[in-house]
Each structure stands twice: as C-alpha cells, then as structure tokens.
C-alpha cells in the first residue's frame, strides 16, 4: 500500500539566525527531506503557500512577525492539510502558550538544542502526520496520533515519549498508559478502580494500592511537573486544570 519510494516530506525552517537556519536545512537535506529556509515572517507566510511544507520548524523571535502569530495563522489555514509545527524557543516561559491550546504547536524545543534531537523530533512529527493520512480503505473515524500537553508536560503518544520543560523523561509503558488515560479525561477524576481496569486490564489480584505506588513513582519522574498529577482524596487521580 506504500509508494515504492515514500517521500520523506518537505520541511520549512523559519529562522532569522542565518547560521542556524542553514545548518538545520543542511541536516534535513542530509536526512532525505526537502528543506527551505525563511529568514523572516513575511517570507515564511509566502513559503507556506508556495512550498506547502509538511512540517514547519518555527523560531519565535523573528524581525517582523512573531512565530506565535505565524503558528496561529497556520492553524487557521483552511482548505488543505495543515503542516505539523515544532517551535524553536529561547524562552522556557513561552512554552505554556506554545504547546498549550493557544497557538496549537505540535511540539517545541528550547534553544540551545541539539540538532540531532531536533531531527528525531521532526521525524516523529512527520511520521505521526503520515499515519494520519487517509490510507486506502481507511475510514474517517481512524484516530489521529495524539500529542497531549499540559503546561510544562507534553506526552507524544505515537512516539511514546514524555517531555517536561522540553527535556525527555523516560517512563515505563505502564506509566505511559496512566498518563494517557488521565489526559483523555481532562479535568475529570479517574478512580483507582477505573485505572486498574483500564491500565492493568483488571486483575483481581492487583491491589488498588498498586495504583498509588505507580502514580507516586511517576510523579517522582515528572519532577517539576509532578504537581500536575493530582490525588483526589478517597477517590482517585486527575490532571490539574490547564489554567
Ligand atoms: Ca530569532
């Protein structure tokens, strides 16, 4: 069902630091992507039309139009498939707005970042996007791959990766399932019994205290994002409100 030579995708690099822009384009082309660089917002908006990228690597601080504004415009584009967006930000404080629901970026990296890490993230985003392309025989109800974000916590379901403040933390498959179940019920409480059933598949010999043990371990791993995973006394667990 795949093409014999699958296209790796077009990437638009929006970056006004010339050295960074060209080294990213170089790394992308070396990895088999088509890449274009826009060194200011006006150029980027034109390139979105002409180049029709699959992925945009988007610097926030540009000389004319802010990267956040460009991201909003990308998300407002009608009539064709929107590119994935990875924000390149120099300021950790901006992350909430970026990956939150406000501008709708898919991912972000904080400068300075390793080019290798950015290449891996780019590949993950393009794969996730590819997997949401309607394949032959697919139905409209096929679920798109999801990235869940809450403040400084971001969970990439398809790539099975978790980031806190832009740094990856390593979680077990079980801990990942706990996070995903909580993200799928935003603001809602999941009882211990529900989590046992959903995450462990309900084994009568698993004590409900097991849930607490795993949540505690997960919280320790989340570090600065630990307080997002809240205990509701006597009931279960929930994620903090986005606000
Ligand atoms: Ca810049």
Q: What are the salient characteristics of this protein?
A:
243 residues, alpha/beta, Arc Repressor Mutant, subunit A, 2 domains, 4-stranded antiparallel beta sheet, 12 strands, 21% strand, disordered N terminus, binds calcium ion
Short account of what is shown:
The protein is α/β, with parallel strands linked by helices and 243 residues long.
- Could you estimate the helical fraction of the residues in percent? 25-40%
Instruction: Indicate the overall shape.
Output: elongated
Structural class label: alpha/beta
Largest beta-sheet details: 5 strands, parallel
Q: State the CATH topology of the largest domain.
A: Rossmann fold
Quote the distance from N terminus to C terminus.
Answer: 44 Å
Description:
The chain has 243 residues and is of the alpha/beta class. It has two domains: 10-130, Response regulator (Rossmann fold, 3-Layer(aba) Sandwich), CATH 3.40.50.2300; 144-239, Winged helix-like DNA-binding domain superfamily/Winged helix DNA-binding domain (Arc Repressor Mutant, subunit A, Orthogonal Bundle), CATH 1.10.10.10. 37% of the residues lie in helices and 21% in strands. The chain has eight helices and twelve strands. It has helices at residues 18-30, 41-50, 67-76, 95-99, 115-131, 173-183, 192-200, 209-222, and strands at residues 10-14, 34-38, 55-59, 84-89, 107-110, 147-150, 153-156, 161-164, 167-169, 190-191, 229-232, 236-239. The protein has a five-stranded parallel β-sheet, sandwiched between helices. The protein has a four-stranded antiparallel β-sheet with strand order 6-7-8-9, covered by helices on one side. The protein has a three-stranded antiparallel β-sheet with strand order 10-12-11. A hairpin with a 3-residue loop joins strand 11 and strand 12 (236-239). The longest helix is centred in the middle third of the chain and has 17 residues, at 115-131. The radius of gyration is 20 Å and the shape is elongated. The relative contact order is 0.09. The model is unreliable at 1-6 and 134-143 (pLDDT under 50). Bound molecules: calcium ion (CA). Calcium ion binds at residues 16-17, 59, 61-62. Calcium ion (CA) binds next to loops.
């Amino acid at each position: 069902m795949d093409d014999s030579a699958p296209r790796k995708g077009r990437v638009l690099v929006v970056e006004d630091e010339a050295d960074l822009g060209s080294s990213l384009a170089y790394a992308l082309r070396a990895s088999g992507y088509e890449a274009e660089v826009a060194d200011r917002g006006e150029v980027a908006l034109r390139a979105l039309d002409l180049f029709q990228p699959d992925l945009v690597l988007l610097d926030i601080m540009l000389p004319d139009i802010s990267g956040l504004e460009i991201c909003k415009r990308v998300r407002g584009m009608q009539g064709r498939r929107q590119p994935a967006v990875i924000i390149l930000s120099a300021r950790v404080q901006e992350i909430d707005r970026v990956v939150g629901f406000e501008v709708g970026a898919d991912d972000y990296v904080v400068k300075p970042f390793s080019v290798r890490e950015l290449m891996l993230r780019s590949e993950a985003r393009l794969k996730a996007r590819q997997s949401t392309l309607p394949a032959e025989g697919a139905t409209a109800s096929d679920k798109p791959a999801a990235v869940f974000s809450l403040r400084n916590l971001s969970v990439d379901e398809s790539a099975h990766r978790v980031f806190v403040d832009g740094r990856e933390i390593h979680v077990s498959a079980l801990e990942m399932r706990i996070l995903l179940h909580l993200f799928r019920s935003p603001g809602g409480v999941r009882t211990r019994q529900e989590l046992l059933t959903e995450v462990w598949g309900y084994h009568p010999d698993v004590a409900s205290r097991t849930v607490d043990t795993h949540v505690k371990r997960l919280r320790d791993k989340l570090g600065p994002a630990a307080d997002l995973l809240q205990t509701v006394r006597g009931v279960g667990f929930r994620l903090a409100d986005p606000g």
